[in-house]
Structures
1.
Amino acid sequence: MAFASLATNTTEAFVTLATNDDYSLGALVLGYSLREATTSKKLHCMITEQVTTPVREQLQRVYDDVSIVDVLASNDEANLALIGRPDLALAFTKLNCWRLTQYSKAVFLDADTLVLRNVDELFEREEFSAAPDIGWPDFFNSGVFVYRPNEETYRALLHKATTEGSFDGADQGLLNSFFSGWREASSAFRLSFIYNVTGGIFYTYAAAYKKLRDQVKIVHFIGTQKPWRGGVGIQMPEFAQIWHRIYERHVAGTVPGSSGTETIAESRSRWEQGRPDFTGKDAFAEIQEALMKNLQ
Ligand code: GLC
Ligand code: MN
């Protein structure tokens, strides 16, 4: 089922990025979640050459615009190791979002986010607005932010990236250094946590989650365990279920290999029956590595 664009405002857009077919599954579900929430803004997906043609075609069904951007690699293995995410070497590619100057204002959403209800009010905010990161709340999380596309900002970011690098080897470190006034800025620039709810592996405030979960507007599946990869390590299983339902409604069977995505329930029951997939989805080695790191 395809969705007609409801965009009445063509100068403001939600923007995301998919650097390969895997993340495109996230981008597809994110796009449909925005449509189901009846956004009046445009939807724009940036992709790299990595994304294959059938997947691009599906992205074009839900996004008003799909544009190809250059890969920007950080080449910073040492700092990426600090956050345990060697897979984020291409995360600077996100900076291309400042080049979408056809929009006067935009909201960037990671492809691993999911919109649960209309969030068009985010466009009332100014650059640079974001929500705190749960790992270190004096820094913002770069999975959801309000910004103004501008070539000059893009060049300044790129200059900073090439001359100073990023303290986490990826976009979040760079953006926090660039917009370093965020923590001290007025509260208008600090988005509520309901716009970027992340779950932690080692610490989650379960009581707050219980009290406020009905108000959550955007969920962000951080870490290596993404909903489209199934797995038992997934945080916030009830939100992952919502992700899977949107996936089943609009995406399953539309792109090669997309029908086989295991649901959380299936994955959990397989785990309970003692058949975890140690080599693949359950990424036991990853969980063990994270535990060992924490113990050290
Ligand atoms: C965090 C952010 C993500 C970013 C990464 C690296 O995980 O959620 O958007 O890519 O940090 O900076
Ligand atoms: Mn993310």
2.
Amino acid sequence: MKSALITGITGQDGAYLARLLLDKGYKVHGLVARRSSDSRWRLREMGVEADIVYLDGDMADACSVQRAVIQSAPDEVYNLAAQSFVAASWNQPVTTGIVDGLGVTHLLEAIRQFSPHTRFYQASTSEMFGLIQAEQQDENTPFYPRSPYGVAKLYGHWITVNYRESFDLHASSGILFNHESPLRGIEFVTRKVTDAAARIKQGKQQELALGNIDAKRDWGFAGDYVEAMWLMLQQDKPDDFVVATGVTTTVREMCRIAFDHVGLNYRDYVKIDPAFFRPAEVEVLLGNPAKAQRVLGWKPKTDLDTLIRMMMDADMKRVAKE
Ligand code: NAP
Ligand code: F7E
């Protein structure tokens, strides 16, 4: 039985990845940071809460990260833990830098010293492209991060490349574009919109305040994207891969799809509020997943319309029960 360690197992991707690895017969360990309230709800939603070995730890605490690596004796480590909300990274730039940046080194060092055969996946991000330097971004596009989050993740990305080249570790980096699901955090724009559309439809909310709805994103489904993570660690050679759909859409159009699904016109409810604009915006992202398709045999299975409908259906049911 293979052993895997997932950091960030209580997050959206952690829950989908845990399900995938358990289905493949792995023993799954999860690094979980101490919180004062329950953080395992996604694992319950996925029906995997009881099947995971939980290890206490925090990415900012090198000792706990090291202990988790030793205790789990992992064949594969998936580093998904992060302060992942871009907007919050301007308010907590140092924490974001420590957790999303230096935390990666804590993990790579533990692997280098105590488990050098372990294969490592780093959750890199399209936010590293920021102010885009090419119309469609691939593995060779120069980076230009536009937030403390993007900057911290760029450190995490390069330290992964550096440990691969310096110590011959099987360390791969997935440069994933936005991916969503019914388990997405409520602060991200897709869930904010589907939750609000459901509430408005059911008379529990009157309007929805958003920021820059002209921003464009390449949105995919988290369930598809965790398969790409796993595939990266099954390759003979570690490498970097862009994971995206190759289609970009405005926030405005995404709102239209969500509200349409419940028979509403988004224009009647969406208000623009300057509070949701960012100090620096990433206006447009569009990924080129050709290498992932060619090398990993990976393709996205879910288009945006299907994804938003899936999220709307889940939010309509959840809001009705409240
Ligand atoms: P998420 O839902 O925000 O989950 C983040 C996870 O990290 C949670 O389990 C969280 O624990 C954990 N965490 C936060 N700070 C920690 C710390 N100091 N020590 C240990 N764990 C900590 O994020 P996601 O959407 O699943 O994304 C997974 C990873 O992919 C992240 O690294 C993110 O930056 C990256 N990424 C995401 C996307 C996307 O579109 N979703 C795209 C590209 C890259 P709590 O639950 O206790 O807070
Ligand atoms: O914003 C605009 C906002 O917060 C998307 C993270 O998973 O993907 C995610 O980062 C766009 C931005 O995601 C609101 O300005 C307008 O242009 O859903 P988001 P994000 O910032 O793209 C990347 C790949 C990651 O790596 C991150 O971890 O939508 N927008 N109005 C809004 N965004 C939010 N959140 N709220 C609004 O009211």
